[in-house]
Specification:
The chain is α+β, with helices and mostly antiparallel strands. It has three helices and ten strands; from the N terminus they run E-H-H-E-E-E-E-E-E-E-E-E-H. It has one domain.
Length: about 170
């Protein structure tokens, strides 16, 4: 993938705060549960010890670390893997710092390491987000879906997308 342009996914202060608080809660709950629950309460022990740790690691595994834009594909870089989005049918790319405002999360992660999943608001309707700083939002419009990303340099990202797919 030598023809690619890499973009970082910087964190907004709100994401840093939510992730910090979420991690503290998801680590303290198992610790308290493990030290205070009677050993014979196996189901309660599992729910309050294992479940919070699974949530923490799943969110970390699906977090957004950056974006790699090639001639026809966008890779959402995760922790050790990437999500692939083909750009062949892209209609438009635009910057909109208010794109994610007043959104309702339908399915996904609303602030533990990233904002990812399916969302809805009046401005965009239904959309998928792979975001870390909503103020850097870039909207990618396709015939059947809308995707919101938050690269470190939205202007350069949009310029690259439009230059690669003009015509």
């Amino acid at each position: 993938m030598t023809d690619g342009s890499a973009f970082k996914a910087p964190w907004a202060t709100s994401l840093l705060v939510m992730t910090s608080v979420g991690c503290i809660i998801l680590l303290v709950v198992p610790l308290i549960s493990f030290t205070t629950r009677p050993p014979r309460d196996f189901t309660g022990q599992v729910l309050t010890t294992v479940l919070p740790l699974l949530i923490l690691f799943a969110a970390l595994f699906y977090s957004v670390r950056g974006y790699l834009l090639t001639s026809s594909t966008l890779y959402i870089q995760r922790l050790g893997w990437s999500s692939k989005i083909e750009l062949v049918d892209i209609i438009n790319a635009e910057i909109d710092p208010q794109a994610m405002e007043k959104s309702i999360r339908l399915w996904g992660n609303g602030g533990l390491f990233s904002f990812t999943g399916n969302f809805r608001n009046r401005k965009l309707g239904f959309y998928q987000a792979y975001a870390t700083d909503p103020r850097r939002a870039v909207i990618l419009r396709f015939p059947q879906r809308i995707i919101v990303l938050t690269p470190d340099n939205p202007e350069h990202f949009v310029s690259e997308v439009l230059n690669r797919h003009s015509g």
